[in-house]
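ingest -> validate -> predict -> emit
validate: passed (alphabet ok, no gaps, 281 aa)
predict: started
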Amino acid sequence: MLSQITYILLDAARMGNTIDEAKEMNPTHDSLYRGRSEESLAVVAPYIFLFQHRTDFINWYMAKGWGDSWGVLIKSSYPLDELHKHFRKFLIVGTEDHQQLYFRFYDPRVLRIFLPSCDMGQLREFFGPIEYFVMEDEDKNFAVKCWLQNGILHSQKIRIQDFVSGNVQTPPPSQITNDISTPSGPSMPSRPGMPSAPSAPSAPSAPSMPSAPSAPSMPSAPSAPSAPSMPSAPSAPSAPSMPSAPSAPSAPSAPSAPSGPSMPSEPSVPRPSKPKWNMFD
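emit:
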């Protein structure tokens, strides 16, 4: 099955200087960032690489990168420039409270959480020209294949030995699941719940019976007059306080620079209930 993979998304933020080694081994690659972002964020940018079978690049990736969340494998018959254009649409998401966040969908820890949280329309838009994704499971001894069928997300957990050797059988529909094991950590924002049905009005309570009048209380005996208190000695007048020195006026603070979208974190999973994809420029 590894022989069927055509592309891989690699995360320079996870790989560090190793991304340079990947570029040297496989010159058919492109950064998903463009313009000034491509120059200033090259060390944390996602890159799409051609993934050809029986090459040193594949052996190198499986030996060094598998299990360390370097990236996500892709099966697609579309050319690289079409995949590049498709994935650039998801680099930044706008949330419902008008924030812009980097979306690290190319991190397998993020993608395992994100895909099951999407509705049918979002899944169709995100898969687009992709036949299926393959990513490492939380247990690196397994791979997880995710694909879309009739608008429904399906997944299959595969032993890494079978994935590499190609000894993978597609399970019958009755055994296909859309459950993807997710790593521990911050949970996904929950979808807004449906409003609960209004509760039925409670029956009016019966009027309470009037209580019986209480008996009049006996008058208490008059208390003895207290002795007059002795006058207290006059307190000495306090010394006048010294006037405090006037404080120096504080220097005006420099205006803060306008904030842009936050840098991608480890991992960032922005998942608004209705994300708005924005092209990264």
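The CA atoms of residues 5 and 49 lie 11 Å apart.
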